[in-house]
Amino acid sequence: MRILLLWTYYENYLRQFYLHNPSVSRLPFADQKQLLLEDGFLWPAHMIDEFRKLGHEADIVVGNADPAQATWALENGLASSTLRADIVREQIRSYRPDILWTCCAERYRGEFLRSVRDDCGAVVGWSAEFGAEQFDWSGVDCVLSSHSNFVQAFRDMGLRSELVLPCVNPKLVADCLSATSHRTRDVTFYGTLAVHLFKERLKFLSAITRHVQCDIYADRMRWRRRPWPPRSFLAQFRYVPFRLRNRFKPPVFGRDLLRLIASSKIVLNAHVDAANGLAGNIRMFEVTAMGALLLTDPSPNISELFEPDKEIVTYENAADAVKKLRHYLSRPEELQAIAAAGQERTLRSYNCTIRAGEVMRIFSDVTRS
Questions:
Q1: Which has the closest alpha carbon to 8: 154, 123, 106, 111?
Q2: How far apart are CA 109 and CA 244, in angstroms?
Q3: Per-residue confidence at 274, pLDDT binned at 50, 70, 90?
């Protein structure tokens, strides 16, 4: 089977990657792509080598990695003025995958997918995104998601959908752990702080940082710009004191992010509001894999993923989180025991080898349908 991943990476990450590696853009396309893969930004890409070990062909297109894409266009005789989407379209036609697995970014769904359907055996989408039920899913045979409420929403729309949890690459984890010698940060948070998507996360962090020092790695806060409805627009200003009180550190990604986690004792987690209280974001698996203690929001399905108080710790509210932060920071042996158990669980149960087998079974079934 030929499997092609079509993804878009965070623009912030790609800017950082090419800025920190200025010579990469002059390399051949294959080398640029390999270096992006080795940096470990995208967890589905961890499975590419695993798919190959299972006897399949597998590759990836990062549709918005402009230097790499421009290099591919040049190497394949396309004009320098060729548009992003047209380059990706030609890559799909050249590869002719049995499975096109895509994040369904805005420019690569709907009309775009319909235009490449004849060049693909089947199209599998990925989404755990707020408002995804409003997307144009025509041309998609199956949608994978990390949260069961999204899976049910897609099924209610008449789409086939399957639950697939994120995974980690044990080799990448080992490499990043070996590069970090001490856990110098007590409490860390990293992630997105968009007011319209993360009200509960912002409320939680605002309360936490009044009592506990927390290193926050995030881009500038994303405020709602439209003044309508007025209540939602005005409500966001409650987070201004939080922003003024905290000096955010620049966001980090890929290997740099894993090394950040490896230098942290406790990492905070709060899911996107659209998850409706269900656990399963990538942060849970990154943090535990890197041996930090995960302090996360409670959810009805948490015990299906980890054993609370033995592999991770949950909080009921901000006050409870502050209490538990102080407790475990003052008892490093307890902290380390839970973190080590969480790490063992993730590396054993949520590794890319296991996940690739699960995903391949879905792919095989989709192609037979």
A1: 106
A2: 39
A3: low
Q: What is the CATH number of the domain that holds 104?
A: 3.40.50
319 and 185 share one domain: yes
Q: pTM of this prediction? A: 0.92
Q: How far apart are CA 154 and CA 202, in angstroms?
A: 28
pLDDT tens readout for residues 17-73: 999 999 999 999 999 999 999 999 999 999 999 999 999 999 999 999 999 999 999
Distance separating alpha carbons of residues 99 and 65, to the nearest angstrom: 21
Compute CA distances 3 → 8, 47, 143, 167, 185, whole Å: 17, 11, 15, 18, 40
Q: What is the CATH number of the domain that holds 227?
A: 3.40.50.2000
Nearest-angstrom CA–CA distance, 73 and 22: 20
CA 190, 195, 201, 206 torsion: positive or negative? positive
Give yes or no: residues 287 and 250 share one domain: yes
Position 277 confidence tier, pLDDT thresholds 50, 70, 90: confident
Q: Which two tokens stand for residue 33?
A: 């792509």
> 190 in helix, strand or coil?
strand
The residue behind tokens 């036609």 is 93
Say whether both 320 and 206 belong to one domain: yes
